[in-house]
UniProtKB/TrEMBL annotation, chain A:
This is Tax1-binding protein 3. Residues 38-67 are annotated as: Disordered. Keywords: Acetylation, Cell membrane, Cytoplasm, Membrane, Nucleus, Phosphoprotein, Wnt signaling pathway. It comes from Takifugu rubripes. It is found in: Cell membrane; Cytoplasm; Nucleus.
TrEMBL record, chain B:
One of its GO terms (cellular component) is cytoplasm. Keywords: Coiled coil, Cytoplasm. This is Innate immunity activator b. GO terms for biological process: adherens junction maintenance; positive regulation of protein ubiquitination. The gene is inavab. Residues 218-230, 241-257, 373-382, 393-403 have a biased composition (Polar residues). Residues 1-28, 169-197, 218-299, 320-412, 476-500, 569-594 are annotated as: Disordered. It holds the Pfam family CUPID. Residues 3-136 form the Cytohesin Ubiquitin Protein Inducing domain. It is found in: Cytoplasm. The keyword Coiled coil applies.
């Protein structure tokens, strides 16, 4: 997932649609994010490339909306409702994810297992 | 090991050759010797390893205490020093090179002491923030806390600097201590000082929105900053100050060897839960904070607290309940407090923001005053002190929060001045502080009380009722009475033991003539009465009556008008009770606050 700025990012992504759970005034997504271009990427336990400043899913609360949408811990969020999440600050990502007016967020996420699966399936022909 | 193999080989060879000429025996001796030596060597190696492990453990333990990994820590080439998780609590050490000496220069020394403490707090917050493997909420809250502490430090530094400037102008000797001289030397740079002034003033203007328009920078710096410093920490206040308050100290803090902060652009990698609205991050901090006095001011806005508690209650309702809770305790101290607030309130009137709210709070205050028990302040205080404090805090917080909500939101740190005091304040300082304290934490506390002590509801209510002769005014916000049900009054367990106290004042004939009544109180009361025609919810009243109104008390509640009269009559005794000392103290506080 290392990518050089300016170059198009290619990644195997999964579309995930999370229906926010309404609890009182809160909209619950059921997961936590970490990262962002304003955070120290080297401390990110999930990234393969320690200079990756993307937004990562750091926690998924069991049976929460995100869990039900099969978001996984360690997923890297590429987009939120079409908004790029690969070059945003932590707070920007958070704001995009927690907009109050939106009951549903659509994520594009990528994760290592996805890429591996795809690689394997394409392996023989596509190396 | 290769060596072993060789040895055994030679050994066997030697054995085979045994009995032959001397040279072989010599070689045999040598080989056995080397073998023994090798064994010994191995043994020693093992021991060394064990010792190194032990040393490592000790070093880590030391590092946990000091925050710095000892140089003795054995590092193999290529090995990375372990991550140290420092135990902050153990690290808090005040150097006693300068303890506030005597009364001279008290403001400055107090500010300095406060600053020193705040620095420690700041440092601790920073280190907490740097810790790894934290829960998301904890980490988030710590980060916020850190930022707030930083702000506080800066603010304190400004104040200290300001004081020092003034001092430098007025008196040749800055007084405080040797290190201070450096501070005065800074005075030479006028541009700096000007900036400081402006900043302080801007702060003042912000403060003024809480209702005191007459704030002067002098009073501001002196009073508000100082009073908290006096009371909050039981710890010995040792002002350890860096010579240049505004800059150096900060630098020293940040550059402390223990841990290097990542470059500015990268804040430590944190995660944030998406289950709460964006701003809610503060609340977690509030929860963690409550325990430590100094951190209280940092608490999040009311809404956050609510959200945290998972209570889907509307704000207005919450406020309502809060106001109720406030009413519960009436003690002599409260009286003083009320007086103070009362006076403040009249200047407040021009202040337009959120009129209804402020008014209501004022009303509440007056009620308090009227109902104050006549018993000796000390005894009352003893009984009620805890509850009273908490309650007063509540009231104040609500009071404060309503008038200038923007302030809070804009400045998480919002109460720039008062916030430094812990909740456990001695009351003088406490009142003072509470005025400026940002509401959130108190709300929180209130909240907790509600939740925790529902069984005491009845008690609290009855007590409350007694205290409140003029119920109508109180319940301005009770338009939605239902909400009260779920959230019982904050029952103060402490209240229960002292029914006698509050009983006595009520039954006492209020013989004092209305003339004595504070003019401000009167006018204020009247005003509020006129302005707040809302009636309190009936169910509430009924409950009170049922519980409290056996015999004489019922009369108190018979008519609103009557109640009002009572109020006016009673006010004077309350005022009379005030000891001059109290007044003085309060006045000073008052002045400083303003």
């Amino acid at each position: 997932m290392a990518h050089t700025p300016g170059q198009p990012v290619s990644a195997v992504v999964e579309r995930i649609e999370i229906k926010k759970l309404r609890q009182g005034d809160n909209l619950i997504l059921g997961f936590s994010i970490g990262g962002g271009i304003d955070q120290d990427p080297s401390q990110n336990p999930f990234s393969q490339n320690k200079s990756d400043k993307g937004i990562y899913v750091t926690r998924v609360s069991p049976k929460g909306p995100a869990d039900e949408a099969r978001l996984k811990e360690g997923d890297k969020i590429m987009q939120v409702n079409g908004w790029d999440m690969t070059m945003v600050t932590h707070d920007q990502a958070r704001k995009k994810l927690t907009k109050k007016g939106e009951d549903v967020v659509r994520l594009l996420v990528t994760r290592r297992s996805l890429e591996e699966v795809v690689k394997q399936s394409m392996g023989p022909w596509h190396k | 090991m290769e060596g072993n193999g060789e040895i055994s080989d030679t050994d066997s060879g030697i054995i085979l050759n045994s009995g032959s000429d001397s040279p072989t025996t010599v070689t045999k001796d040598v080989t056995t010797h080397t073998r023994a030596m090798k064994l010994k060597h191995q043994d020693l190696k093992d021991k060394l390893e064990i010792c190194l492990l032990e040393l490592k453990k000790l070093c880590i333990r030391e590092a946990e205490l000091t925050g710095r990994l000892s140089d003795d820590y054995p590092l193999l080439p290529g090995e990375k020093p372990p991550q140290i998780r420092r135990r902050i609590g153990a690290a808090f050490k005040l150097d006693d090179q300068s303890i506030p000496q005597g009364t001279k220069d008290s403001e400055l020394s107090l500010v300095d002491a406060e600053l020193a403490l705040q620095m420690k707090i700041f440092e601790a917050a920073r280190k907490l923030c740097d810790e790894e493997r934290l829960g998301k909420a904890v980490k988030k809250s710590r980060l916020l806390q850190y930022k707030r502490e930083e702000k506080k430090v800066k603010r304190l530094q400004e104040v200290a600097f300001q004081l020092r400037l003034e001092r430098g102008r007025s008196s040749p000797h800055p007084a405080f201590n040797a290190s201070q001289d450096l501070g005065t030397s800074d005075d030479s740079s006028l541009s700096d000082s000007v900036v400081q002034d402006e900043e302080v003033i801007s702060q003042l203007t912000q403060l003024s929105c809480t209702g005191e328009a007459e704030a002067s920078s002098q009073s501001f710096t002196n009073g508000s900053y100082i009073s908290p410093s006096v009371t909050p920490q039981p710890l010995p206040l040792t002002p350890r100050r860096s010579p240049n308050p505004s800059i150096n100290s900060m630098m020293s803090l940040t550059s402390s060897p223990a841990d290097d902060l990542p470059p500015i652009q990268h804040s430590p990698w944190t995660e944030s839960s998406l289950d709460q609205p964006y701003k809610k991050s503060k609340k977690s901090r509030s929860s963690s904070k409550t325990s430590s006095p100094t951190k209280q001011e940092l608490l999040p806005p009311l809404e956050d607290c609510l959200a945290q508690a998972g209570v889907p209650v509307q704000l207005s309702h919450l406020r309502l309940s809060r106001s109720q809770s406030n009413s519960t305790p009436s003690t002599p101290e409260m009286r003083v407090h009320r007086q103070l607030s009362l006076r403040l309130s009249s200047p407040d009137s021009p202040f337009e923001r959120d009129r209804g709210r402020t008014r209501s709070s004022r009303r509440r205050l007056t009620d308090y005053k009227i109902n104050l028990p006549e018993t000796s302040p000390l005894s009352n205080y003893g009984n009620h002190a805890g509850s009273e404090d908490s309650n007063s805090e509540h009231s104040y917080t609500s009071y404060n929060s309503s008038p200038c909500p923007e302030l809070q939101s804009a400045f998480p740190h919002s109460s720039p001045v008062g916030c430094y005091g812990p909740p456990a304040f001695p009351r003088n300082g406490f009142y003072h502080n509470s005025r400026y304290q940002s509401s959130p934490n108190f709300h929180r506390g209130y909240h907790n009380e509600d939740m925790v002590y529902p069984p005491h509801l009845d008690l609290a209510r009855s007590y409350y009722a007694q205290q409140v002769p003029c119920p109508q005014n109180r319940y301005e916000y009770s338009a939605v009475p239902n909400h009260r049900g779920p959230r019982p009054l904050p029952p103060n367990p402490r209240l229960s033991p002292s029914p006698a106290n509050y009983d006595s004042p009520h039954y006492r004939p209020s013989s004092i003539s209305p003339q004595v009544v504070n003019e401000q109180l009167k006018s204020w009361h009247r005003r509020s009465q006129l302005k707040t025609p809302r009636s309190r919810s009936l169910d509430r009243q009924g409950a009170i009556r049922l519980k409290n109104a056996p015999g004489q008390e019922a009369t108190h509640y018979q008519s609103q008008k009557y109640n009002e009269q009572v109020i006016q009559r009673r006010a004077p005794p309350a005022a009379a009770d005030e000891t001059p000392g109290h007044w003085l103290v309060d006045d000073s506080h008052f002045a400083s606050q303003v």
